[in-house]
């Protein structure tokens, strides 16, 4: 390296933009100068490939550090400063990738990080970060009310502003001595990697969040004396009121006995008339339950509304469960990838099998074999289609519809999603399901992303129609009503609020109708849905809060009707003592054997629809599978006895194969 190059290197390292190497030959240097940026060539500098790492939270207190935007090549990387760390000292960074830059023999590890406050992102030296969260909080949880007082040291009450990913403490006010603060909520706030407990307290009109260390349950002496005096006065007033009430009650009792005798003669005829009116009103309410009224049309979606509860009244004491062995209930587990997913770099040519751990029942002895590997990349984004949630076939079994979501939205009900329609028959004819060349669909998607599509790729891509993005909710429930040939999915299903189901247009692949309804204030819709050939709708739920007649981890099944004219449901008054697993993933109906399938991760149960409400243990089929995979959906063909399970990591259709 000559003297000029030494001088140029020094100027580059002292500048606000850290430039390490150059990505191209001198033509790119000229282009950079035209944009007013100076790029300096540095030799003996290179980097490793950027690799994914486990997501981990960090914070930085650096006053001089920066994040950088990466360009250039492995042999001549370029890092340009894009954010200053001192502006983010009260926030959390999350790493997702790493690389090592070597300059003059010295290795420096860099992490690719994203900021929780404003999604700022870039590469940063690992040495500039400290492990842990900062300026973040958990969701408040209700706790038993409890009285607290100011600790000996000074303390303050704050208002927490912002969302959990970035919160700030505002409007601090000093805690008052000798005042009782009533705790109602609890949450954790992270500061410089430390997890600190905060209580939400109220005192008169004052309310806010207080660090637990500034509070004590010990009542101050002054407050204790005041409390005793108040209690004594209250007891005296209570005694006086009791004596007065006793005298009043005696007089009232005499008058009541007289009135009771008079009313008794009337009560029989009145009760009879009331019972008749109640029966008539009940019948009228049943006939109108769940009927819709048409509302406005916006963005191509016509909304329909119901009034009142759409679920038929029931008594939990009349509910029962059929016995299912505990061993078949699968607890939640860490999801694993397909065995060859990473080894084949996602381009898996051969079929894989998930074996059977245990099974019971006449319809349970089947394994799962991959039959179609779905694409990961879109034309413009790597990995965009890596999170499928549900799948269903068209009525003629020609098309497969798969619903996907991204990670947008503040919760599951506000996620963005889209539907991809696969021409199942043409893709099969093109050999994409043939063992040994099952990578063809994913390869076509990769080639499309890199703009190197072959004629074979084009034939495959012509069989795939990608729909527009819309607010889909968690999208676990896309299914076909074979009676009406309509596609439906559940968009909103939170407890205590109106649920919403939407109808998907099979041509445009976007919703064209929505129906709002409430099962009842204490019951949510659940996130899965299916229809039988008669058009009856079903969903199932996993019991978290036990009834005397329904233990924790039992399964409840609901049956009803969904259309733009009416929505109504009733609880099937017999469930399963154990559901397939802790996570409700999907539900399906097999027209060939007339059975409902309940799906959880690594576990599938089925029951005959004809025996719902009076099942025997022998009617329940249950299968547990190997692999610890995430089961996303189940789909049955309408013209054959063919069933498929949608799995993730990587996304694929696995066929049920009877042994």
UniProtKB/TrEMBL annotation:
Give the matching InterPro entries. SDr-like
Q: Which UniProt keywords apply?
A: Signal
The signal peptide annotation in the UniProt record is 1-20
Indicate the segments annotated as coiled coil, or none if absent: none
Comp. bias (Basic residues):
228-291
**What segment(s) does the record annotate as region Disordered?**
228-294
Q: Which PANTHER family does the UniProt record give?
A: GLYCINE, ALANINE AND ASPARAGINE-RICH PROTEIN-LIKE (PTHR34403:SF16), TOL-PAL SYSTEM PROTEIN TOLA (PTHR34403)
* Protein name, UniProt field: Extracellular protein
């Amino acid at each position: 390296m000559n003297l000029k190059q030494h001088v140029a290197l020094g100027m580059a390292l002292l500048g606000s933009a850290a430039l390490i190497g150059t990505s191209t030959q001198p033509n790119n240097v000229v282009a950079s100068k035209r944009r007013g940026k100076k790029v300096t060539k540095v030799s003996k500098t290179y980097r490793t490939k950027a690799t994914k790492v486990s997501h981990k939270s960090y914070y930085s207190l650096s006053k001089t550090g920066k994040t950088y935007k990466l360009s250039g090549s492995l042999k001549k990387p370029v890092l340009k400063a894009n954010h200053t760390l001192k502006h983010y000292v009260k926030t959390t960074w999350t790493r997702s990738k790493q690389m090592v830059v070597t300059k003059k023999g010295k290795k420096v590890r860099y992490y690719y990080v994203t900021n929780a406050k404003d999604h700022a992102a870039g590469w940063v030296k690992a040495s500039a970060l400290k492990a842990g969260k900062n300026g973040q909080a958990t969701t408040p949880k209700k706790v038993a009310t409890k009285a607290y007082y100011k600790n000996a040291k000074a303390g303050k009450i704050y208002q927490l502003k912002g969302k959990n990913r970035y919160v700030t403490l505002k409007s601090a006010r000093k805690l008052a001595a000798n005042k009782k603060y009533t705790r109602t909520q609890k949450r954790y706030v992270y500061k410089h990697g430390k997890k600190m407990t905060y209580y939400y307290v109220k005192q008169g009109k004052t309310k806010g969040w207080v660090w637990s260390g500034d509070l004590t349950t010990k009542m101050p002496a002054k407050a204790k004396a005041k409390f005793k005096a108040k209690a004594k006065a209250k007891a005296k007033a209570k005694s006086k009121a009791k004596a007065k009430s006793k005298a009043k009650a005696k007089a009232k009792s005499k008058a009541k006995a007289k009135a009771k005798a008079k009313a008794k003669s009337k009560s029989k005829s009145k009760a009879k008339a009331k019972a008749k009116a109640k029966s008539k009103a009940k019948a009228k309410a049943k006939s109108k339950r769940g009927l819709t009224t048409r509302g406005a049309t916006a963005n191509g979606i016509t909304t329909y509304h119901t009034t009142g509860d759409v679920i038929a009244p029931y008594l939990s004491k009349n509910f029962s469960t059929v016995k299912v062995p505990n061993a078949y209930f699968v607890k939640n587990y860490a999801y694993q990838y397909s065995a060859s997913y990473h080894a084949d770099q996602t381009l898996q040519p051969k079929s894989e099998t998930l074996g059977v751990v245990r099974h019971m029942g006449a319809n349970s002895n089947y394994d799962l074999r991959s039959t179609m590997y779905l694409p990961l990349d879109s034309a413009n984004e790597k990995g965009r289609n890596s999170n499928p949630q549900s799948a269903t076939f068209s009525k003629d079994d020609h098309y497969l519809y798969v619903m996907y979501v991204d990670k947008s939205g503040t919760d599951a009900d506000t996620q963005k999603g889209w539907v991809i329609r696969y021409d199942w028959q043409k893709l099969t004819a093109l050999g994409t399901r043939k063992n040994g060349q099952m990578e063809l669909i994913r390869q076509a998607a990769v080639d499309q992303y890199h703009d190197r599509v072959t004629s074979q790729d084009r034939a495959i891509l012509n069989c795939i129609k990608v729909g527009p993005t819309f607010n889909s909710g968690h999208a676990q429930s896309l299914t076909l009503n074979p009676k009406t040939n309509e596609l439906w999915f559940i968009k909103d299903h939170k407890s205590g609020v109106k649920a919403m189901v939407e109808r998907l247009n099979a041509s445009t692949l976007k919703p064209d109708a929505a129906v709002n309804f409430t099962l009842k204030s204490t019951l949510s819709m659940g996130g899965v849905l299916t229809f039988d050939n008669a058009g009856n709708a079903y969903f199932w739920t996993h019991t978290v809060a036990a009834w005397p007649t329904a233990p924790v981890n039992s399964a409840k099944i609901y049956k009803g009707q969904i259309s733009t004219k009416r929505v109504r449901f009733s609880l099937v008054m017999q469930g399963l003592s154990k559901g397939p697993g802790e996570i409700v993933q999907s539900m399906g109906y097999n027209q060939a054997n007339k059975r409902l399938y309940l799906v959880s991760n690594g576990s599938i149960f089925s029951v005959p629809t004809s025996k719902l409400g009076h099942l025997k243990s022998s009617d329940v089929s249950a299968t547990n599978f190997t692999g610890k995979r995430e089961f996303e959906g189940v789909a049955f063909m309408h013209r054959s006895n063919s069933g498929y399970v949608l799995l993730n990591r990587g996304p694929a259709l696995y066929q049920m194969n009877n042994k």
